[in-house]
């Protein structure tokens, strides 16, 4: 600690320092003020008891009364803390790790006269192979105007170019919305504008739709780059028509969205695209104050053998200089050197500039905010405290919306919008489901579909759910293995249904706050079909149990490419020649399905049982 006692003058910086210390102290202790508790999430039972000045036994017994078994050192989540504190007559205010350890930067607003225009920050998204990389490469290579020495030689995660009209544009050099969404899932707001690349010789594809949904969810203005117009078979009008079909009317169709036909290969019209981006930026009136301490977002960070941690950051406000001390998440350091995207050393950079820097003591995650601190020991302190919180929270993840949570949030009265991501096996059912679910909107709560589409539930769906706090609804489809893992890690609820009415009914009940205990399918095994044989008209499959336990009397779904093609029962289950009652993970087995013979290599036989699931609250 230290630093706030020096000198008597109350400069802006020292006031900030004092405020920070106050915050830090508060965070360190968590505060009980009258009947109000200010706490960081995940207090332990004993800490909560201390704050309320009651014995931990009383807290434990209250928890038991709520049906939750806890031990004295167990950390409680926000919901439980709220309930238990309520029982003791306390109101709870949660302060997040950032609030708890952040300074008051957000409170010190820049005076309008200090603000200066800044360059727009642009992200490029689109379907695989539609030309994102080619476009980024073309702009990177072509836009070296006179006076801007050196080409862009380094891939540092972002680069800035000067257009023919002399204005600057910063591009995030991480094509694909995964990176973008992952950042957004962490709360980072980096890009100002999204360029959606669509190949004119193709069509609006699933990832195009996803990119559009991601941009809309983030509230980013979009510019459509209709690419590959040099190719035979390119049909830009068809793309515009398809966009119109999605309610996205481009300007030459009388709408508000800018679009530009380009060739990322030949460079045709890319200058016009850049001008359109700048036009969009003008409407946004982007400004920042270059004369203050720097703050911004980490774009990427790596460990370099010779140079230590190398971090690319995007300065979003203020200016960053060599020698400054910054903190990002749980890491800090004094900047030893800075390099631009041309590999040149720079001493100082201002708003919207990407820069690679050396000197941090670790690698912050992409999307993590960073901020400059005047006092190195203070920075160290802050980073260490954060590291401590991160360690404590390590096992916990953010709580996202679940079906059970809907009623509770409604009861709290501040739940205005329920976001859904809907995936289904065919377009018709997706549309039907999405229409019906949207119609469930009431005066209190709007049901909003942030993404709908055909096919398996993917990692990127789960990422979008994380970023937009959405529930994922699958109709006759399943999550991919990676998506399921990610959903578990991020606490995203994926509900899968095989009857549209069930989905509507459940959501409706949840929204009416009266979700009944229900019978739910619990998957007990995933078995992969590796060979098939025809045998007396029936098809017998040679299989491998990927995980879980498959029982002879299990009910099963046959899943092909993530889509449920049949639901029924087993006809037989064998190990070698013998009938068996069950097979477990790692075993080979033979099976056939009752009254069903269309088995294919690669299909997954998913065994499930039906269990009663209680609402948790
Ligand atoms: N003829 C023509 N080909 C193009 C154009 N733009 C890109 N391509 C080609 O299309 C292919 C895919 O381009 P990429 O830039 O790799 O596409 P991408 O969207 O970045 O693809 P991923 O990185 O796989 O998502 C490459 O073979 C490019 O050469 C264009 O304007 N005209």
Automatic annotation (TrEMBL):
Q: Where in the cell is it found?
A: Cytoplasm
The residue range of the signal peptide is none
Q: What residues does GTP bind to?
A: 126-133, 173-177, 227-230
Asked if the Swiss-Prot or TrEMBL record annotates the protein with the keyword Lipid biosynthesis, the reply is: no
Which keywords belong to this entry? Cytoplasm, GTP-binding, Initiation factor, Nucleotide-binding, Protein biosynthesis
Positions of the Tr-type G domain: 117-287
> Region Disordered: which residues?
1-32
One annotated GO molecular function: translation initiation factor activity
The domain of life for this entry's organism is Bacteria
Q: Which family does it belong to?
A: Belongs to the TRAFAC class translation factor GTPase superfamily. Classic translation factor GTPase family. IF-2 subfamily.
PANTHER family according to UniProt = TR-TYPE G DOMAIN-CONTAINING PROTEIN, TRANSLATION INITIATION FACTOR IF-2-RELATED
- HAMAP family cross-referenced by the UniProt entry: IF_2_B
Biological role = One of the essential components for the initiation of protein synthesis. Protects formylmethionyl-tRNA from spontaneous hydrolysis and promotes its binding to the 30S ribosomal subunits. Also involved in the hydrolysis of GTP during the formation of the 70S ribosomal complex.
Protein name as annotated: Translation initiation factor IF-2
* Organism field: Chitinophaga pollutisoli
């Amino acid at each position: 600690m230290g630093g706030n006692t020096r000198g008597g003058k109350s400069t802006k910086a020292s006031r900030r320092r004092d405020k920070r210390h106050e915050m830090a102290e508060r965070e360190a202790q968590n505060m009980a003020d009258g009947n109000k508790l200010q706490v960081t999430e995940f207090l332990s039972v004993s800490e909560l008891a201390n704050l309320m000045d009651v014995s931990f036994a009383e807290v434990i017994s209250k928890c038991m009364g709520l049906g939750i078994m806890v031990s004295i050192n167990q950390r409680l989540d926000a919901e439980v803390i709220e309930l238990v504190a309520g029982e003791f007559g306390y109101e709870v205010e949660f302060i997040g790790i950032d609030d708890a350890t952040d300074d008051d930067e957000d409170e010190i607003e820049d005076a309008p006269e200090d603000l200066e225009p800044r360059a727009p920050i642009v992200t490029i998204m689109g379907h695989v192979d539609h030309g994102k990389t080619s476009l980024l490469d073309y702009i990177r290579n072509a836009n070296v105007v006179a006076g801007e020495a050196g080409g862009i030689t380094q891939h540092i995660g972002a680069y800035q170019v000067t257009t023919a009209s002399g204005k600057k544009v910063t591009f995030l050099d991480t094509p694909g919305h995964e990176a973008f969404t992952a950042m957004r899932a962490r709360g980072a707001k980096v890009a100002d504008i999204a360029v959606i690349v669509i190949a004119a010789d193709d069509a609006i594809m699933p990832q195009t739709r996803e990119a559009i949904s991601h941009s809309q969810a983030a509230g980013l203005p979009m510019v459509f780059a209709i690419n590959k117009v040099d190719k035979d078979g390119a049909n830009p009008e068809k793309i515009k028509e398809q966009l119109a079909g999605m309610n996205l009317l481009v300007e030459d169709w009388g709408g508000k969205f800018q679009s530009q036909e380009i060739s990322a290969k030949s460079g045709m019209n890319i200058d016009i695209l850049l001008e359109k981006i700048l036009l969009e930026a003008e409407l946004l009136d982007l400004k920042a104050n270059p004369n203050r301490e720097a703050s911004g977002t980490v774009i990427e960070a790596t460990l370099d053998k010779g140079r230590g941690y190398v971090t690319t950051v995007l300065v979003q406000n203020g200016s960053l200089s060599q020698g400054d001390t910054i903190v990002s998440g749980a890491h800090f350091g004094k900047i030893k050197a800075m390099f631009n995207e041309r590999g040149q050393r720079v001493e100082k950079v201002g708003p919207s500039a990407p820069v690679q820097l050396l000197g941090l003591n670790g690698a912050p995650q992409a999307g993590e905010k960073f901020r400059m601190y005047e006092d190195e020991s203070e920075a160290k302190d802050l980073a260490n405290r954060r590291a401590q919180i991160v360690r404590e929270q390590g096992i916990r993840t953010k709580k996202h919306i679940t079906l059970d949570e809907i009623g509770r949030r409604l009861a709290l009265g501040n739940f205005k919008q329920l976001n859904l991501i809907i995936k289904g096996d065919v377009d018709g059912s997706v549309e039907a489901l999405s229409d019906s679910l949207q119609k469930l909107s009431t005066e209190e709560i709007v049901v909003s579909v942030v993404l709908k589409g055909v096919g398996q539930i993917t990692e990127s769906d789960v990422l979008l759910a994380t970023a937009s706090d959405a529930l994922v609804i699958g109709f006759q489809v399943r999550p991919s293995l990676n998506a399921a893992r990610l959903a578990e890690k991020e606490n995203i609820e994926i509900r899968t249904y095989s009857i549209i009415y069930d989905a509507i009914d459940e959501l409706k009940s949840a929204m009416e706050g009266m979700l009944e205990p229900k019978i739910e399918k619990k998957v007990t095994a995933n078995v992969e079909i590796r060979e098939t044989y025809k045998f007396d008209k029936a098809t017998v499959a040679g299989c491998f149990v990927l995980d879980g336990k498959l029982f002879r009397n299990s009910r099963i779904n046959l899943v092909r490419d993530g889509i449920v093609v049949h639901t029924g029962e087993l006809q037989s289950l064998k190990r070698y020649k013998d009938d068996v009652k069950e097979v477990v993970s790692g075993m080979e087995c033979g099976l056939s399905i009752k009254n069903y013979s269309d088995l294919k290599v690669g299909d997954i036989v998913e065994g499930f049982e039906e269990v009663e699931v209680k609402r948790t609250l």
